[in-house]
Each structure stands twice: as C-alpha cells, then as structure tokens.
Amino acid sequence: MHHFQRIDGALHAEDVSLDTIAAGAGTPVYVYSTATLTRHYRLLREALDAHRESLGDARIAFAVKANSNLSVLATLARLGCGADTVSEGEIRRALAAGIPADRIIFSGVGKSDAELAFAIETGVRQINVESGAELDRLIAVAAGKSAAPEIALRVNPDIGAGGHARITTGGAADKFGVPIGEAFDLYARAVASPHVTPVGLACHIGSQILDLAPMEAAFRTLREATLELRTRGFEVLRLDLGGGLGVPYHGQAETPSIAAYAAMCARVLDGLGVEAAFEPGRLLAANAGVLVSRVIQVNQRGDGRRFLVLDAGMNDLMRPALYDAFHDLVPVRERAGEPALHDPVGPICESTDVFARDRLLPPLQAGDLVAFMSAGAYGAVLSSEYNSRPLVPEVLVDGDRWAVVRKRPSYEEMWAREPRAAWLKG
Ligand code: LLP
C-alpha cells in the first residue's frame, strides 16, 4: 500500500497534488511519500518484533543503494532504521542523515583498503566480508590500526533468485560471497586473527524475489552452517539475511506478505539464539516514490503506432532499459476519451529509451503529466546526466508539506564540475 491517490481527479502524494509539485519543481521530478516509507518500515518492524524469540533484537538496515537521498535516509533514521552500505560514500550519507555508526553495515564485493580503513575509523557495526582476499586485506588494514572490527562472512549458498537474471546474486557463478564449502576454513582463519572479530554469517541471494522458497532454502543453508561452525567451536551470534523481498509493481497482490516473510525467517532461525539482520531496499522505498514526467508530444504514425514522447528519459529511470522492468504509468489528471495503446518513450537518442510497449492510456496531449509508479527504489540513484540532461530533482512530501530534497543542477553548476584544461583556456 502507498499514499499516492487520486483526489478530485488529480493524483496526489499524500495531501499534495502532483500538479502543484510539477509546477513548483519542474519535470521530470521524483516525488517520495514520508507516510509510505514510514508505513513500510513499521510493518516490517512489527512483523519482526512478533518473532523476538527466534529473531532476537532484529536489526533493519535499509539498503542505501535503493534510495540514497539524505532526506529519505533521515526519515528512516528517525524511525530507528539502520543502513546497509556498499561504499564510503554511502557510509558518509548514512552518517550525514543521522544514522549512527553502530547501525551501519558495510557490505560489497570490492571494498578498497581506504574504504575498509574508513569503516573501521567510523566504527560501523559490522563489515560483511565477501572473500578470502578481502579478509586478508581487512586484517592487514585493521592490524595497522590495532583494531578488531566485527565481521560477518557473506556466504554464497548457490541459490539464486530474483525478478530478473540481472538482479540475481546468490548463484554459484555470481561474484558475491564465499562458496559455502570454503566458508568454514575462512571463518576459522578469521577467528584466529586478533584483528577481526567474526560475529556471524550473511547472505543475499537476489532482488525482487516473489517466492519465499529460494530464500528459505538459502536461510536453511545459513542455519546448517551456523550449527557446523558451532560444532567446530566457533561463536555465531548474528545472521544477516540480506534484502530481496519483492514488491507489487503490477498493482495486484502477487507478493508474499511481510508477515509471511518474517514468519518464514523465524521458523528457519528458531532455536539458534542469534540476532537477525535484514537489509531491505526495494521493500521500504519502491512504492514510496513516483517519477512525474510531462508529455512533450504524441507521435502518431500512419500504421497506428502511437509514441508518447515524455520529458523523462532512460537516464532518469533506468530500470526498464536495464532489466525490462515494468512500471505502471498513470496520468496525473484523468482525461475523458477512448483509451488507446501507447508506447511511452523518452527523448534520449537510444533505442533502449523505451519505457514500455502498448500501454492502454487515455488520449493524452502535450503538456499533460504522467507518473511512473513504484519508482522510489533504484530510480533516482541510477540516474545520470547522459545527453547532458541535468540530474532529475527529488521532492519529499509529508502530509501537506513538500520540499525539494535534491535540486536540479543548473547548466552552470554542471559545467563547473569540469574545469577546463589549462592548455585549452583563453
Ligand atoms: N543487501 C545486499 C547485499 C544487496 O546487494 C542488495 C541489493 C540489497 C541488500 C537490497 O536488496 P532489495 O531489498 O532492494 O531487493 N537495481 C536493481 C536492483 C539491484 C539490487 C542490488 N542489491 C533493480 O532496479 O531492480
């Protein structure tokens, strides 16, 4: 459920009409709902709290990669949410937004020495180590600081899942994590070092997962690995179950409920006495955001094809071009007339700049506003300035208040980032 609804014919974000925001901030523009972010966080929090016996004091660490806007992060920070980060930049963002270091998890397959050093200095809660090579570098970096950061070992359970082959991470051929067969020796190596403190295991098998079965299988692998490690005399205090739960992009309720997900996790972890951690990105943010765009024109072809040319391009919303992703497209104001099939496209000079084919839409005209739904996760974060289009701005709504929380840069600001080479001046 989200808080984008039609009031008096106009699509609103909470109590603010998207017309008003488009008029004030221009288009294209991302619009986020505080109430939806809050609702999703609370639903997950309550679902996990209902299983304290099995999941312990379960941590929720928002996957910052899904939406790293500082005001979005600050909204979640106030609710008590932590952060799952994959770069120094994301750690800095989380801190800047008010998420304390002891609620920050540092994940990622290729953390540099400098980033590892930064994470140690910052005092993040946990570093998720993804390979033997990384463990060795982390030990060396930590030794230089006489530190012993807490780490979890990310295992690759050889179970991939997800809404698209390009967002699957848990398969044997995927670059992520340590094969389960190698995890035991690696954990032992970590325990033997005075410069890391192994506290548990982690996994994340993919994104936009709509079937709990592969997740359950992966978590069972973690459970068995936990028992095996304990048999070998090692402590396992935490299990980080990653993110990955899918959301209903198509409007219908095809997704597992948060309650069913939490119950499944509790069932698998029951009796282990571990503290669980979760790294949801899409689940919290996707349906909390829309991308509002204006129709530039409708190109009607003689063969009947109708291209709805929008001012948003694939540089603003990459998901359809990258993953064939479906985003519902909704007119901000209802228009009377016979609906017809349209191909919504952007203005970019690439044939991948097609958001969808054959969408049934009312007869839209130049100047009309449309909203791409469920664009709050992996939307703005994936945007670029391709074709020298300024980065799309972001707006946060809270009830009847709204604020621009990322500005559209001016052309001067864009050029200012590119100092002219000395020999080209004058
Ligand atoms: N934890 C780790 C280690 C991850 O790699 C990811 C996402 C998450 C948590 C959060 O997953 P979520 O709950 O959002 O599914 N750009 C793609 C999605 C890439 C996901 C990458 N990893 C998309 O737009 O579909």
Descriptive report:
- The protein is globular, with a radius of gyration of 23 Å.
- It is built from 13 helices and 21 strands.
- Helix 6 (113-122) crosses helix 7, helix 8 packs across helix 9 (212-231) and helix 9 (212-231) runs parallel beside helix 10 (258-269).
- The longest helix has 20 residues, at 212-231.
- The chain is of the alpha/beta class.
- The chain folds into two domains: 4-31 and 286-416, Lyase, Ornithine Decarboxylase, Chain A, domain 1 (Beta Barrel), CATH 2.40.37; 34-285, Alanine racemase (TIM Barrel), CATH 3.20.20.
- It has helices at residues 18-25, 34-49, 52-55, 70-79, 88-96, 113-122, 132-144, 180-192, 212-231, 258-269, 282-285, 319-323, 411-416; strands at residues 4-7, 10-13, 16-17, 29-33, 59-63, 82-85, 104-106, 126-129, 150-156, 178-179, 197-202, 238-240, 275-278, 289-300, 306-310, 329-331, 340-345, 359-361, 369-372, 394-398, 401-406.
- Strands 4, 14, 15, 16, 17, 18, 19, 20 and 21 form a nine-stranded mixed sheet that branches. An eight-stranded parallel β-barrel has the order 5-6-7-8-9-11-12-13, surrounded by four helices. A three-stranded antiparallel sheet has the order 1-2-3.
- The model has no long low-confidence stretch (mean pLDDT 96).
- It binds ligand LLP.
- InterPro entries: Ala_racemase/Decarboxylase_C, DAP_deCOOHase_LysA, De-COase2_C, De-COase2_CS, De-COase2_N, De-COase2_pyr-phos_BS, Orn/DAP/Arg_de-COase, PLP-binding_barrel.
